[in-house]
Amino acid sequence: MTFDIVVSIVVLVVTMLLFMSGKFPFALPAAGACVVLYLTGVLTAEEAFSGFQNTNVILIFAMMIVTGGLNRTSFAKEVTKFVYRFGKSEKSIVICMYLIVGILAQFMNAAVALAILLPIIYSMCEELKVSPSRIIFPISIGALSWVGWFPVANGASAYGRYNGFLETLGATERLGIWDLWYGRLPAVIICTIVMLLWGWKLAPKEPSYPIQEAKARKQKEPLSPVKEKIAYIIFILTTVGMLTGSFTGLDSWAVASVGALLMVALGILNDKEAFGSVNWNIVFLMAGSLGIAEALAVTGAASLVGDWMVAAMGGITNPYAIGAIFFIVPFILTQFMSNTAVDNVFTPLAILVCMSLEMNPVGVLCILRVAGSCSYFTPMASPAIAYVMPAGGYTIKDLAKMSILPCAILGICSVAFCMTVFPA
Asked: How far is Cα 415 from Cα 334, in angstroms, rounded to an integer?
């Protein structure tokens, strides 16, 4: 184990402990970790602070401004009235928002889908006198468990990427375009049913620390009818631009950035309101968490774990045991680093192990996909969790309490189903 790997793991552990202490704003330990990784020589300055230029961070930053402009309109109130047709309760909010965010997550990443809905959730919670902490995390489960499920947008490219690995490594099997959807089908459906019927109640009734809402949300001065229409047009065009990005070639972060600029340029928000609509705690937490994830990837920590896993598997040949291993280990790693990085490390390992045992690798690849989506436990796990953690006032302990049930459902169902319908 090299010096760089040791430092990366120590920084990760210390950062997690600071997060759990609740004595510091999340931005402080996250940004501090990047500084330490640079000063110790583990990462270059470009690598340590790459999170601040990461397109996901830029995307969330821009969408905060876009939704800040939308908050100046009556949009949230109108959506709230629509949801109230199905009931005025915590459960009705969870059900409606869960299904909406699941649909949005087929066309954009989970963090952006949540960023679009968060102002609406805040509005409904304020009117019903319900704490946002009760609603936000259950909705994020919907976003992450459903994201890229159908073979459209990002979901359409996943099977092609796996087939590229299969071809390169000499495997004869190939994934069909619907295989990843089919492999996740029972796990996603059962998780959704459980979360909507009972699982959402695991969310705390009150935030563990004060929620820092954007200042622009508090703005009560109404827009003129013309500016309100302009705000709607900007928001709709921004959303459509992101939804159709896979067809037009336009990057979501660029579309969102244009939308944010138009909100200011056309007078929907002034400069102070635009910056006030940004939750800087979220921005720094996301960027800092990406720096830690970068260290784990660059130093080879993930590859080291993968090598240990293959060596430890030894004579295991039971397909269900192998499926379970390729869920559990990537699932644990993806709580601390990018699920994309984890997926890229374990995809060739999974294929090679299956080839050596003359097993069909399709089921294991489906399981690997599910493991990557179970990124709920820490802000390093995914941009979506880094976004909702401050937005809902959650601690690491809260995340763990709420995440165990959906992760257990997704893991058990995916291993049992995938290793049965894609047998060796």
From this structure: 17
Could you give the CA distance from residue 253 to residue 225 in angstroms, rounded to a whole number?
29
Cα gap 321→327, rounded to integer Å:
10
Q: Which residue has the higher pLDDT, 338 or 146?
A: 146
Q: What is the DSSP letter of 328?
A: H
pLDDT digits (tens, 9 = 90+) for 377-420: 888 888 888 888 888 889 888 999 999 999 999 999 999 999 99
Show the tokens assigned to 91. 């459960």
Tell me how far CA of residue 174 lies from CA of 126, 165, 361, 369, 375, in angstroms: 50, 10, 9, 15, 27
List the one residue out of 278, 292, 222, 263 whose CA is nearest residue 48.
Answer: 292
| CA 173/CA 165 separation, integer angstroms | 11
Give the residue among 61, 32, 1 at the shortest CA–CA distance from 291.
32
Distance CA 142, CA 384 (A): 11
Distances (CA, A) of 180 to 111, 151, 152, 154: 21, 8, 12, 12
DSSP 374: -
Residues 205/129, Cβ–Cβ less than 8 Å: no
What is the identity of the amino acid at 51?
A: G
| Predicted pLDDT at 189 | 95
- How many whole angstroms separate alpha carbon 154 and alpha carbon 157? 5
Q: Which pTM does this prediction carry? A: 0.74
Separation between Cα atoms, residue 62 and residue 26, nearest integer Å: 20
Cα 226 from Cα 245, distance rounded (Å): 28
Residue 138 is predicted with a pLDDT of 92
| 3-state DSSP assignment of residue 221 | coil
- Token representation of residue 257: 């950035």
pLDDT class for 26, splitting at 50, 70, 90? confident
